[in-house]
Design brief:
By secondary structure, this protein is an all-alpha fold. It is 62% helix and 2% strand. A three-stranded mixed beta sheet has the order 2-1-3. Strand 1 and strand 2 form a beta hairpin. Helix 19 runs antiparallel to helix 20, helix 32 runs antiparallel to helix 33 and helix 39 runs antiparallel to helix 40. The protein starts with a helix and ends in a 6-residue tail after the last helix.
Amino acid sequence: MTNNFLTTIKSLKLIEGCKAAQLYALSSVGATASTSGSGDAGGSSRPQPPPPPKAISMRSGSLYYPHAAPSTSGAFVPEPHLPCGLPVADALEPALDACLRPVDHVAALAASYRRVSAATSSAAEGGGEGDDLCDAYLEQHALFQSMGDARLLRRALRAARVHAGDPHRRAVLAAWLRYERREDELDPAPPPLAPCTATTPLLECPRAAVFAGVSAGVDPVCPCRRPYTPPLPAASSFSEDETNDLWFIIGEEEVACERSSIASLSKPLNTLLYGGFAEAQRDRIDFSRDGITPRGMRAVAAYSRHSRVNDFPPDTISQLLAFANRFCCDGLKAACDAELAAMVRGADDAHSLIDVGLEEASHLLLASCLQAFLRELPGSLTNPDVSRLLCSPEGRERLDAAGNASFALYYFLSQVAMEQDAKSNTTVMLLERMSECAERPWQRQLALHQLGCVMLGRGEFEDAQEWFEAAVAEGHVYSLAGEARAKYKRGHKYAAYKLMSSVVGEYDEPAGWMYQERSLYCVGKEKLADLSSATELDPTMTFPYKYRACAMLEEDKAASAIEEIGKVIGFKMATDCLELRAWFYLALEEYELAVQDVRAVLTLEPGYMMFHGRMHGEQLIELLRGQLQQWDMADCWMQLYDRWSAVDDIGSLAVVQQMLSREPGNSSLRFRQSLLLLRLNCQKAAMRSLRYARNSSLHEHERLVYEGWILYDSGHRDEALAKAEQSISLQRSFEAFFLKAYALGDSSMDTESSLSVVQLLEHANSCASDNLRKGQAYNNMGSIYVDCDMLDEAAECYGIALNIKHTRAHQGLARVHYLKNRKQAAFDEMTKLVRIATNSASAYEKRSEYGERDAAKTDLNTATILDPTRTYPYRYRAAVLMDENKEEEAIAELSGAIAFKPDLQLLHLRAAFFESMGDGASTLRDCEAALCLDPTHGDTLELYSKASKRPEPES
């Protein structure tokens, strides 16, 4: 029997359009379909909930695509009633990474660590290398981008801010840190230059950025929080007969001054008034042509006597500043600069004063004005005056002349612009300015490569090729992939293939991306062989899975296609992969599963457009409504409870998204959504959900909790703790106590402190909440009891958690069994979790700790298949090989993982292996790379010190 829905929907004629030749040709930069972290992209800085779907007639012709692509060559032929056609394997194209991507990450990280160490030593010896140290940490930030670890990126930015030696860089980096938290998206948005509150991160303080001392360190007390000191009273009037011995004539007015006071302002004035000039013999000097008004000259006279400018209005201080520049009055200029800078309290002030700063080269004033603009990004880039200043070559030259143009400034601006619209003219201009400011090799590599990526996305292939070639000439090998891509787009397929083949052949250990790129320019078995090699070398790249899945679908192997794309979704929540699997489910008429994936996509990216940007995900759900079982909110809660207990994170995410489509203002649901996203390692999307939760909350104590979680997830533990305490002071609640316990438990504690955290969790469970959250609290309590060696209490907590279906408590209970020397019971307990969470790499990995060696190997191999990014299986297998004296195999096991995931523990273990083998150079390199990732790692520091003291072997 023909499905009536499919018969009806075929009038939409989606088949032809969804087979368009460039369906999955993702943009080379800023491809919002490629990762879960791109949900913040868009034209507005303030996130908005997705608009409700427009009413769509089932026979609407508005979604008809006029350009049909050639049919696929595979055996699978879509039925005429298939609602969305089929994706075409040969139309897929991976995105180019618009960041630094070294061929050898380990060597690059090690070199970066050495540069930081050298700059630190130089600064400690008084070499004044603060800017070098700041730039070294910015280089680390650029290197960390390709690794995708938000914690490393934040740490590098913070370190750069701490060591920024001038107001300009401090203002830029403080604004960048604030932008990363998206504080401007809170409702109402705090003024960008408002004084700090008790919980504002110190490194983001606007006053500390501009008005800190010359020291590269950070003042431990925020200037905004210092006790208020009232200004000194105005000086008493003085007797003109006694102190006035010099008059300046301006027009028809005379301004009385004291000669010695005016002369003390600068050496030129001292020479003028006491040197061999005629003015030294005169008591009246004509200043009518010196560009200062009588009021301005009276202000100069007053400053010369009292050294204060805070009594004057801005226009008078501007005249003082011009006078100071003309006569080299350094003290007067500094005072005027600081006073005008302090007057900048927002964008309006910045607009009115920035021309003064540019004309008079006022460093602090310009830093304050720039800070006001930067703290309103991305919105400020839409202002024509700001855009002209920041984007144009003339604007950069004016900023540079005033000492306020830097690579750091344009690095930040270009990141913001690329996130908003990677193809815009604004992005191109900012990247061009960034390349003009680039002085070091890594800076030029980054700017030129990103220009190539942007031009490729704009379809300007000749320009793209030139930029990529320039980046290659600076030493960025990954830009060869962009060069090949540009050549291919220009019709030179063989040249592209030849170029990538030469790259593959040049290296003894080629990277996975090299094979992936070469696969684009070959066909058949050769293409599949390259994709297989790419996955073997780097299983985290999504393109090979997508291509193989689409190829399987074309061969009428839909179930295999779903299994293939599911491999990558199991460890990487990529929106394009979820969309592709939803597409496959539609082909199999599995509408419930298709909609589940669509809802997951919309959670990651609320504005996501399906089918080559032709249909919003909400519209597709609306079209499929008649094919779905309808749930009310009670049904949704039951479904959420079941899926949460079944450790089905994607299913839970989909249910929460469905609930939010009914109650978009439910802050509790938004918060729960953020927890799921964090568990799935989708931090940017999680932060967006937290901001939604905070903005939609009706109660102050709830808003404080959500603000606390935003701070905690941004790495500001103490500030998060303060928010929790503020919330508890207003009203006791589960989430406030839970946040306080989490923040306190984040640091190493003794038994007494740990038990105080347990008490907080008990307070949390005494407050109203649902079993999903209470189960988490009991599970956390159990973990703390285990750390305190209170195993019976831990078992009791885990038992309570399991009784309310917090399934992950099986893992904690297994740990208790193991510590009580019941290894088989621990294995059996983990087997229960494995049966429930059938595709959980974590469950298999944890069970391996309690099984015999063969069983452990089997579990760890399964864990690696399910999630190749988990590092423990590689370390275990390498240790086993080392025990068997298979040193080369052990090194190879670790090296294979390090090639696509430079992890601290992997690097430390390999360094230890090299040390035991007597390979000092390799030991030092791996230690340096590991310390680049975590400079405080004690074991690595000890190993590094030991290896550094070992004498070099004689040649």
